[in-house]
Amino acid sequence: xxxxxxxxxxxxxxxxxxxxxxxxxxxxxxxxxxxxxxxxxxxxxxxxxxxxxxxxxxxxxxxxxxxxxxxxxxxxxxxxxxxxxxxxxxxxxxxxxxxxxxxxxxxxxxxxxxxxxxxxxxxxxxxxxx
Length: 130
Fold this sequence. Notes:
- 32% of the residues lie in helices and 19% in strands.
- The protein has 130 residues and is an alpha/beta fold.
- The chain has a domain at 47-129: Nucleotidyltransferase, domain 5, CATH 3.30.420.270.
- The strands form 2 sheets. A 5-stranded mixed β-sheet has the order 4-3-2-5-6, covered by helices on one side. The protein has a two-stranded parallel ribbon with strand order 1-7.
């Protein structure tokens, strides 16, 4: 009397479903990463080589119409220093990223750099990579 079952379980593992899942996740993250937008005003930056890295900073943007922005908030040029000091008062190493459009006169860029120099704030000049 043969009592063995007719359905045998094979000890092989099929990886095709696992690779399908991995490729779907890869495609999802590639599409999702292109949809991420930066939190900054859209301006044309001057080109330069080099790279800067910073953990926490405040972006100061100057548009071609000479409007000053602190992290997308429009600020008048007369209250720029007070607003920067208010925002950076809690940081132990205050840093600003200066994003000036390439048609902005140098005097306006130097004005922001002077404010940072007087208050011992580190300035990083943002440029467009080559």
